[in-house]
Amino acid sequence: MKSHLGRRAFSAMELHTLFNGYIYGDERQKREQPKHWHFWLPLIAYYTGAYSDEIGSLNLTDIIKKDGVHCFSFTTHGKIRHRLIPIHTALWQAGLEGYIEHVKKAQHSRLLYDLPSKSGRYSEKVRIWFSGEGERLGYLQKCDLPSIDQQGHKTAISSLRLNFEQQIRIAALQRANKAAFYYLLGLKDETTADPLPLSALKQVIAPLRVINNNVHWRRFLDRHN
């Protein structure tokens, strides 16, 4: 096996495998301890391009409606800037509204309340669950997907951001809206003035490919009840 050459996006076949894996199916694995964040974090990562720490930090107050568009308000640090990401239709169809009500009734403030932090970060817990560590298999391996391919390229939870990037790049170019591409990825573009119209951002996100139309949070609940 060659050494790690860098991360790559998931292929169409790999995405199909991930979003048709046991988390999104009907059978519970032996010794599995299912958490709500196992279901939601990969979906939100794919449809927003956000990092694990950003998603783990989302509070209910970060789900806002502005100019008639429901958005996630992502706030991070460093080179990635604050941004509003329109919530893709597929997330609502997967039961996001019902899950939000569940979080409210349980009197939690954080959307993925059962995702613990380690040293103030959520990404380490996500990495171990998704990619495994040592002899511990991750969701990737349980879906029979390697974390490093024969060319030495690595896939991880952050690969979903690359899938998001690939798709919105095309959508933004088709709409002659390069600024939306930079904004949605949280990249600094000195030529872009904030804020960008949310309706335009929604148009760029709308064409994101839906991998599995049968994904639903209630199905996830039925699987582990």
Task: Explain what you see.
With 225 residues, the protein is mainly α. It is 41% helix and 8% strand. It contains 11 helices and 5 strands, in the order E-H-H-H-E-E-E-H-H-H-H-E-H-H-H-H. The protein has helices spanning 12-18, 36-48, 52-56, 89-93, 96-105, 123-131, 139-142, 159-174, 178-184, 198-205, 217-224, and strands at residues 6-7, 63-66, 69-74, 83-86, 153-154. A 3-stranded antiparallel beta sheet has the order 2-3-4. Helix 2 (36-48) runs parallel beside helix 8 (159-174) and helix 8 (159-174) runs antiparallel to helix 9 (178-184). The termini are far apart. The mean pLDDT is 91.
What value does the average pLDDT take? 91
Helix fraction bin: 40-55%
Number of H- or I-type helical stretches: 11
**What is the strand tally?**
5
In one word, what is the shape?
globular
Largest β-sheet summary: 3 strands, antiparallel
- Which strand order do you get reading across the main beta sheet? 2-3-4
Measured by DSSP, the beta-strand proportion falls in 5-15%
The helix/strand class is mainly alpha
Query: Which residues form runs of ≥5 with pLDDT under 50?
Result: none
- H/E element sequence: EHHHEEEHHHHEHHHH
Q: Report how far apart the termini are.
A: 41 Å
Cα-based radius of gyration, to the nearest Å? 17 Å
InterPro entries: DNA_brk_join_enz (IPR011010)
